[in-house]
Amino acid sequence: MRFDxxxxxxxxxxxxxxxxxxxxxxxxxxxxxxxTSLRDFASGNYRRVDDRPFGGGPGMVMMAEPLSQxxxxxxxxxxxxAPVLLFSPVGKPLDHAMVQRWSRSQGAILICxxxxxxxxxxIDQQVTEQISLGDFVLSxxxxxxxxxxDAVARLQPGVLNDPESHSQDSFNPALDGLLDxxxxxxxxxxxxSGVPAVLLSGHxxxxxxxxxxxxxxxxxxxxPDLIAxxxxxxxxxxxxxxxxxxxx
Length: 248
What we know:
Trp Operon Repressor, Chain A; two-stranded antiparallel sheet; elongated
């Protein structure tokens, strides 16, 4: 798959693409990331890509023409009709289901906005989908683009040391969309606290039931909306419901 990233700061991506376990996906080309500097398509001596908003107000707005020229250039280099994604506070929140969808796709063109946003005419005419990381505002879309690319990369075959690792992630359908349980490692006693005895027992059925109950309790406490969604999807067993009822 190929992701083209339109950004004013391509240098921000260099350490991201060459560090950590997900670099395997980028270096192998499983997730082919190509960076395009928007300023290469700006005109004038100052290569401006932004201007003041009509109607007044603080800040600057990214102009439609440089964005359009940049997008056209990328589209002529691609053999597919790639969707255009814009990272924006008004977008749909990025979630696991969305990541899974993009991890099985042919890729997309990612627009990293800056300043007060983009000229709405470009959005209306060119943007396929808008994505948000949550109810807050970043200085630009680069961090959001990295978040999507990282999440997509770790789902590719061979990227993680254990191919089953991502199936135990929070929000994964393999966990019925619940949060993952607490994890422990050596030493058995640390700073006056021990490891739950069941994890040392060697009884795999009991361990799995403990982990299930921990996921249920943690999710009920921190994200009750996920419990409601799991119920709606028929993901909770009678034993699950009995355990939740006992939590009061």
